[in-house]
């Protein structure tokens, strides 16, 4: 049991629920074996911790850990990404290239959103799981690799099998050991803990006081259904932190953030991507606001400092040494107050599309052009981000 606690600490996993501990326990027990593991659970429950934990606690821990989001790779290139290709295998294949299965030889490969794999790729995957053999695209040579596979899926795999979109034999091969990660509503005792953690994280990140909930708000939070699970809870904590001036959150304030979720999320069975889509637009707007606030705070601080230290004020009596990198940070509450006065500055983008474009461009820039990282930051799937980039005509 102590080891479970140590794992939670090491990976920053919050929660005391029995269901979560049981899932972690299975992960630890199966880790030293070479069995395939299938991690299932709704979108946003924290599935991505598990393959890493399994790898780190296996004999392969010094080998490579390769995570692949099967839902983010275009169908046309997925075989080549996974299994590599030979020079000239297709137009544009100027060089040969190793695939992830070759790359991860001796290590672990995490196939996230495995249900998104095209059928033809499923055949190749089944073969490598059964025999350790694969063939690069455009090659005739059979190669060997020694890879442990951990896959993850939301709960749609059964339907995909029924619809003929996912091979049943592959499902059984992947699912040697199932790990079910519980939905947040199945562990209500963790909701408040998680909320406090996320509120504290935002507070540190943006150097402002953490929001707190009064008793009624806490009660409302714990009764909510959380269809987007921990990801959604995190978003809500961040949005409230960003938007609300008051740091003491009451039930009526909280309900504004939860009602929107309720009306916008029609009882959907289709899982991650539709949830993402429905919430993306609103979240983008919040993030734009938040970013503008931060920018404005920074500008205000600069102005203050310039005034305070005599730049443009030759008569100032402030000591000059302060300018040499010793500028004091203004207090947290000061910083937050500045934002309010100037939110209507003319630099505010005009249309919603402008705001979204601005937001995506910023996120890409912040992440050095990495779509994966930008998508994660914007709470959308890479596919959605890709589509938005096209729709909004963003040049990268
Ligand atoms: N128990 C937890 N404690 C802290 N953060 C968590 C926990 N579970 C999930 N998260 C966070 O929630 C977000 C969604 O988790 P993720 O693993 O990406 O979900 P999914 O099941 O959709 O793959 C991530 O930011 C993750 O760090
Ligand atoms: Mg995931």
Radius of gyration: 24 Å
Q: Main beta sheet, described? A: 5 strands, parallel
Number of domains: 3
CATH topology (fold) name of the largest domain? Rossmann fold
Q: What is the strand tally? A: 9
Summarize this structure as a short list of keywords or feature phrases:
9% strand, binds magnesium ion, 17 helices, 9 strands, 51% helix, globular, 396 residues, Helicase, Ruva Protein, domain 3, two-stranded antiparallel ribbon
Would you mind describing this structure in some detail?
This protein is an alpha/beta fold and 396 residues long. The protein folds into 3 domains: 2-182, P-loop containing nucleotide triphosphate hydrolases (Rossmann fold); 185-264, Helicase, Ruva Protein, domain 3; 272-391, no CATH class. Helix content is 51%, strand content 9%. The chain has 17 helices and 9 strands. It has helices at residues 2-11, 18-30, 49-56, 75-83, 100-103, 119-131, 157-162, 168-174, 191-206, 215-223, 229-243, 251-264, 272-308, 332-341, 352-366, 371-377, 382-391, and strands at 37-40, 65-69, 108-112, 133-135, 142-144, 148-153, 177-180, 212-213, 248-249. It is globular. The two termini are 49 Å apart.
